[in-house]
């Protein structure tokens, strides 16, 4: 019942309230505990706030990182060419013992169109109908990731090429002469890679096609790139006007600079390659000395532009792994090489590769420094030894035709004796009628690859190539620099190999391979 004067109930004011369980002493202790807890809870409020802020920042960074990855990966036009490349070379070099990485070779192609492409799963076309490419770079990263070679292939090169790149039976060996950049126009990146692999026996690990239109955005994302021209440029076709000397150009100007050729120098594609290599050097120098790698916003803008302009077999994750693996390469160990060429006799406006080009391809195949250059300091030559697969076809089951393609008399007859003593059946040996070749090449028909491996094992370092025009006979081509024969483990008999009396030594080339490094002055 409430008190008429106070409006309070007895429970609120009566003695039960004051003397109930716990009493005044308990209330005092409760108050002290509450005060102590409050002091403890507020002793380090800044620490609690900092932890919350860090946790929030981590969440934001992770969300942004995932969003950026999804965005960049979605930009890329993925195109798997594996079903369009036919018979491919076998990588020769082995994995580095320190990095545990294999050498990596990429083909980089510039394209002015993506018309005709079908991208994504289930695509049936690998060409870029109507597209043109006048920039082709072969990029080789050493297994130790301490050096890189970038080879420019002139677009006007005349080489053998598959007659029809859609027909897997058409190869370089039974192909036709064709201008290099026509391979891309007729069959896109797949035809370009097939032709390159057939000519050089170098396995292409990955490829990248960069759209010229996106190239402009990449340069703009860098904040421009400095170029150097010895004479003023005023080219109406590319709408490019530049003074002599150094100029920082934007994306549109950069595209005109790397493509112009009519109003500067000798007007040839070879002169344009020199400018392109100097431009790439400038790009590397700009990316190295700028804060792009330390500025996530600038880095994202550049990667966003790059991935939007790219058709490749790589994903963003693979690109990141490759980029991280080459981070240790110094700019003085990135070498740009222009493929050695000479005038193509039937058409003076075209060029053909000289024999000196093979020294470049050999260096890439074997993952060795270019002739005349030194390996980076601290480079080791030790590599993880690769155990060759056992030979499965005995020599006595293999019929071999030998061709002496070295120009040195007696080499085919000597090779016949080296094979016959081990049980091989030699059907014939002849002298080739073409220009001298280099090294040993074993060609084989359908279903004869294992037999070809046994023949190739006689000559360490021999290349094997499929030629479906051959039947059950394996063809052995002996060229300049052919190595001495060795006994194969599954040979017949134990009679020693005859001592060689003929040596087809490789003459020293009088041509030099000019290379510029990425740290070189762009005006040089």
Overall description:
The longest helix has 31 residues, at 45-75. The chain folds into two domains: 77-375, LCP protein (Aminopeptidase, 3-Layer(aba) Sandwich), CATH 3.40.630; 387-511, no CATH class. An eight-stranded mixed beta sheet has the order 1-12-7-2-3-4-13-21. Strands 17-16-20-18-19 form a five-stranded mixed beta sheet, covered by helices on one side. The N and C termini lie far apart (106 Å). The protein has 13 helices and 21 strands. The protein is α/β, with parallel strands linked by helices. 32% of the residues lie in helices and 18% in strands.
Features:
524 residues; alpha/beta; Aminopeptidase; eight-stranded mixed β-sheet; five-stranded mixed β-sheet; 13 helices; 32% helix; globular
Instruction: Classify the beta-strand content into a percent band.
Output: 15-25%
Report the CATH C-level class of the largest domain. Answer: Alpha Beta
Unreliable spans: 1-22, 114-124, 381-385
Q: Give the overall form.
A: globular
CATH architecture of the largest domain: 3-Layer(aba) Sandwich
Please count the beta strands (DSSP E, at least 2 residues each): 21
- Mean pLDDT, rounded to whole units? 79
Count of helical stretches? 13
Query: Terminal Cα separation, in Å?
Result: 106 Å
Describe the largest sheet. 8 strands, mixed
Q: What is the CATH homologous superfamily assignment of the largest domain?
A: LCP protein
